[in-house]
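Form 7-S
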Amino acid sequence: MSSLFSLSLTTAILCGAWMIGADMTGLIAWAGFAGCTTFFAAGGKKEGFKSAICTNLSGVFWAMLSIKMSAILGFPQAGVIMTIIITFFLCIQSKITILKFIPGAFVGSFSTFAANGDWMKLLPSLFLGVVLGFLCEWTGILLYDKYGKKED
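Output:
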Protein backbone atom coordinates (compact mmCIF):
# COMPACT_ATOMS: atom_id res chain seq x y z
CA MET A 1 0.00 0.00 0.00
CA SER A 2 1.37 3.42 -0.94
CA SER A 3 1.41 6.45 1.34
CA LEU A 4 -1.16 8.08 -0.95
CA PHE A 5 -3.45 5.06 -0.65
CA SER A 6 -3.06 5.11 3.15
CA LEU A 7 -3.88 8.81 3.34
CA SER A 8 -6.79 8.41 0.93
CA LEU A 9 -8.30 5.53 2.88
CA THR A 10 -8.07 7.14 6.31
CA THR A 11 -9.28 10.47 4.92
CA ALA A 12 -12.31 8.83 3.31
CA ILE A 13 -13.26 7.05 6.53
CA LEU A 14 -12.74 10.09 8.75
CA CYS A 15 -14.58 12.43 6.38
CA GLY A 16 -17.54 10.06 6.37
CA ALA A 17 -17.46 10.06 10.17
CA TRP A 18 -17.30 13.87 10.12
CA MET A 19 -20.43 14.02 7.96
CA ILE A 20 -22.32 11.82 10.43
CA GLY A 21 -21.03 13.74 13.46
CA ALA A 22 -21.73 17.16 11.96
CA ASP A 23 -25.26 16.10 11.08
CA MET A 24 -25.88 14.73 14.58
CA THR A 25 -24.57 17.85 16.33
CA GLY A 26 -25.96 20.53 14.02
CA LEU A 27 -22.53 21.72 12.91
CA ILE A 28 -21.86 22.90 9.36
CA ALA A 29 -20.44 19.91 7.47
CA TRP A 30 -19.11 21.85 4.48
CA ALA A 31 -17.35 24.30 6.82
CA GLY A 32 -15.53 21.38 8.41
CA PHE A 33 -14.26 20.44 4.97
CA ALA A 34 -13.16 24.06 4.47
CA GLY A 35 -11.14 23.82 7.69
CA CYS A 36 -9.73 20.44 6.67
CA THR A 37 -8.73 21.82 3.28
CA THR A 38 -7.04 24.79 4.94
CA PHE A 39 -4.98 22.42 7.11
CA PHE A 40 -3.65 20.54 4.09
CA ALA A 41 -3.18 23.67 1.96
CA ALA A 42 -1.18 25.29 4.78
CA GLY A 43 1.27 22.38 4.62
CA GLY A 44 -0.19 20.05 7.24
CA LYS A 45 1.66 18.96 10.35
CA LYS A 46 1.92 21.15 13.45
CA GLU A 47 2.65 24.35 11.54
CA GLY A 48 -0.22 23.84 9.13
CA PHE A 49 -2.52 23.19 12.07
CA LYS A 50 -1.58 26.45 13.80
CA SER A 51 -1.67 28.43 10.59
CA ALA A 52 -5.07 27.05 9.55
CA ILE A 53 -6.64 27.79 12.92
CA CYS A 54 -5.27 31.33 13.18
CA THR A 55 -5.96 32.38 9.60
CA ASN A 56 -9.47 30.86 9.55
CA LEU A 57 -10.28 32.70 12.79
CA SER A 58 -8.95 35.97 11.45
CA GLY A 59 -11.09 35.58 8.32
CA VAL A 60 -14.19 35.02 10.45
CA PHE A 61 -13.33 38.13 12.47
CA TRP A 62 -12.91 40.35 9.40
CA ALA A 63 -16.08 39.01 7.77
CA MET A 64 -18.14 39.59 10.92
CA LEU A 65 -16.74 43.10 11.14
CA SER A 66 -17.79 43.66 7.54
CA ILE A 67 -21.29 42.32 8.15
CA LYS A 68 -21.78 44.45 11.28
CA MET A 69 -20.31 47.61 9.75
CA SER A 70 -22.35 47.22 6.56
CA ALA A 71 -25.51 47.02 8.67
CA ILE A 72 -24.49 50.08 10.71
CA LEU A 73 -23.64 52.11 7.61
CA GLY A 74 -26.91 51.02 6.03
CA PHE A 75 -26.52 52.38 2.51
CA PRO A 76 -26.68 50.18 -0.61
CA GLN A 77 -22.95 50.14 -1.41
CA ALA A 78 -21.76 49.67 2.20
CA GLY A 79 -21.07 45.99 1.52
CA VAL A 80 -18.83 46.86 -1.41
CA ILE A 81 -16.87 49.36 0.64
CA MET A 82 -16.48 46.91 3.51
CA THR A 83 -15.37 44.19 1.07
CA ILE A 84 -12.60 46.46 -0.17
CA ILE A 85 -11.49 47.27 3.38
CA ILE A 86 -11.54 43.71 4.74
CA THR A 87 -9.85 42.32 1.65
CA PHE A 88 -6.98 44.71 2.32
CA PHE A 89 -6.72 43.49 5.92
CA LEU A 90 -7.02 39.82 4.94
CA CYS A 91 -3.88 40.33 2.87
CA ILE A 92 -1.84 42.84 4.88
CA GLN A 93 -2.16 40.82 8.08
CA SER A 94 0.15 38.27 6.46
CA LYS A 95 3.01 40.45 7.70
CA ILE A 96 2.31 38.71 11.03
CA THR A 97 4.02 35.32 10.83
CA ILE A 98 1.15 33.23 12.17
CA LEU A 99 -1.22 34.92 9.68
CA LYS A 100 1.03 34.57 6.62
CA PHE A 101 -1.22 31.99 4.93
CA ILE A 102 -3.55 34.39 3.11
CA PRO A 103 -5.83 31.70 1.59
CA GLY A 104 -6.72 30.52 5.11
CA ALA A 105 -7.97 33.99 5.99
CA PHE A 106 -10.08 34.07 2.84
CA VAL A 107 -11.51 30.63 3.68
CA GLY A 108 -12.57 31.90 7.10
CA SER A 109 -14.03 35.02 5.54
CA PHE A 110 -16.02 33.46 2.69
CA SER A 111 -17.21 30.71 5.03
CA THR A 112 -18.65 33.37 7.32
CA PHE A 113 -20.62 34.89 4.48
CA ALA A 114 -21.73 31.45 3.25
CA ALA A 115 -22.91 30.62 6.79
CA ASN A 116 -24.94 33.86 6.84
CA GLY A 117 -22.80 35.20 9.67
CA ASP A 118 -23.64 32.30 12.01
CA TRP A 119 -20.21 32.38 13.63
CA MET A 120 -21.36 30.34 16.63
CA LYS A 121 -21.84 27.28 14.40
CA LEU A 122 -19.08 28.21 12.01
CA LEU A 123 -16.20 28.48 14.48
CA PRO A 124 -16.48 24.96 15.91
CA SER A 125 -17.11 23.59 12.41
CA LEU A 126 -13.96 25.20 11.00
CA PHE A 127 -11.92 24.25 14.08
CA LEU A 128 -13.05 20.62 14.02
CA GLY A 129 -12.36 20.60 10.28
CA VAL A 130 -8.74 21.54 10.94
CA VAL A 131 -8.62 18.79 13.57
CA LEU A 132 -10.12 16.46 10.95
CA GLY A 133 -7.31 17.34 8.55
CA PHE A 134 -4.72 16.66 11.24
CA LEU A 135 -6.32 13.29 12.05
CA CYS A 136 -6.48 12.35 8.37
CA GLU A 137 -2.78 13.06 7.97
CA TRP A 138 -1.79 11.37 11.24
CA THR A 139 -3.83 8.19 10.70
CA GLY A 140 -2.64 7.99 7.10
CA ILE A 141 0.95 8.05 8.31
CA LEU A 142 0.21 5.45 11.01
CA LEU A 143 -1.46 3.13 8.51
CA TYR A 144 1.38 3.50 6.05
CA ASP A 145 4.03 2.93 8.72
CA LYS A 146 2.25 -0.27 9.80
CA TYR A 147 1.22 -1.75 6.42
CA GLY A 148 2.82 0.35 3.72
CA LYS A 149 5.21 -0.75 1.07
CA LYS A 150 8.09 1.61 0.58
CA GLU A 151 7.80 3.44 -2.71
CA ASP A 152 10.63 4.04 -5.16
